[in-house]
Design brief:
Layout lengths: L7 H27 L26 E3 L2 E3 L1 H10 L9 H23 L6 H26 L4 H15 L2 E10 L2 H12 L4 H8 L10 E5 L6 H9 L10 E3 L2 E12 L5 H26 L17 H12 L1
Antiparallel strand pairs: 1-2, 3-4, 3-6, 5-6
Helix pairs in contact: 5-9
Length: 318
Amino acid sequence: MKKLNKLTFPLLALSSTLILSSMAMAAEDKKTEVTPAAAPTATAPAPVAPPAAFTIPDPVATVNGTPISKAAFDQYAQQLRGKTKVDSAEASKSLVDQLVLEELLVQEANKQKLSDDPQIKQQMEMVQRNLLASTVVRKMLSANAPSEEAIKKEYDTAVAAMKGKEYKASHILVDSEDKAKEVIAELKKGGAFAELAKTKSSDSSAANGGDLGWFAPSMMVPPFAQAVAKLEKGKYSEQPVQTPFGWHVILLEDTREATPPSLDELKPQIAQMLQSKMVNDYLEKLKSGAKIEVKEIQVSVVKPAPEAAKDSKKEEKK
């Protein structure tokens, strides 16, 4: 959705400033024609006028005698918050126009007595149920926002699980154990790992000499991760490592302790996770205190059509 232009008044003021500046420059040019030796004078830019103040009336409009209240306008603006800004008279007028059109459509729907349509009634009931249910959850969450202590405790638990090493390694991927052994033989003869990766490896990392960058063991398939963890820094695997992708020769370049994200980085995710847990606990509490009877869904076996049954018997005879 395109944002409404809120710069109309500042731009008009700026245009006026530019026009006045042009007139001043023209006058200055005439002066310089008479006295060419005169030094040019610097002029400070004129301040841009602030946006004009505006007040929303109540009602904001009347359609066929039906008023549209300021409360309805405010609620509509609240629903659009984050999608568009209502910070100028022009933007407010645009929202009022939308409310007017909506009121015209509602009045037309009433003329057609659409509210008596059974399908419309059912849809309106579903909207009402959804609104009531979501409001209950929203009120519960607003009254039970996760505390800083709870967030910090969850963060500490998550960080403890993240502790461990990260590895920086390169690899050469081939499609057979014999080819992997040939690569290892060339390495033992003094071959450069990166050059062999460029010419022998079938992995997308071959162009970068087999470089995989930094990774945690959990990011790799178990056989690969286990082989890396056993290597010494600067050493390569002297036995081929098999994974579902093929056969690998791995070079461990460096290791470091894993650095977990900061509390500020994880805080939004942790708060959302705690809120989800609150909702689940709240729903379980409601279920445990309610008498619920769920009817069994009846599954019917569909019998084949007579013609289809005859065809299947013919196939069996063959």
